[in-house]
Amino acid sequence: MQVLKGKARQRIMESALAEFQEKGFQNASMRCIAKNAGFAVGNIYNYFRDKNELFFSVMEPITQPLNDYIEKMIEKIKDDMFTDRESWSLKKHRDRAGEVALFIHENRLLLEILVFKSHGSCLETYTDDVIEKYTDMSMVFLKRAGEFFPTVRTDVSRFTVHSINSIMVTYLIELLMHKVPYKKMVTYMDEIMIFMYYGWQAVMDCDFEKLIEK
What we know:
The chain is an all-alpha fold.
């Protein structure tokens, strides 16, 4: 019976994904989702409390990895980023840019729904929430950088840090909006990462490569 329940839940989520993709969260119909999954509409509520919970479950394959990545980066900043100097290198930043491009490429459909079609849902502010989390992470980074490197400027305002992160997230949204192919996306991500890498050095009045050598 448990296996059958698992299969039923999966059919509902697959039907919901198609409905959210076509109509967005706000205009999606639980009745249509049920019909296309082969269930009476009342049966859906045996698996999901409401449309919001269903939407959250459909989006979880991308929201959970994103949340986990941010938490992992915060822990790295707290623990070993400043002893592992190689993580400051331009090469590492460009490698991360490639990873981001691959993640967008592999999850394009879900990301497009999350970014462009989540209005009215419990995740409609997810993009803003990510910017805030990255801002929190950046502020932790600046604090730790000041502890390790007293000559580095770290009194950057939260407003500026928030704006920089907003620019980066907007750039990623532009890649989605314009449906940039994967190979071009890799190139574009490399370009913006180089820009950000040297831009942060200017803001912090330091040379990351020289810090690595010390």
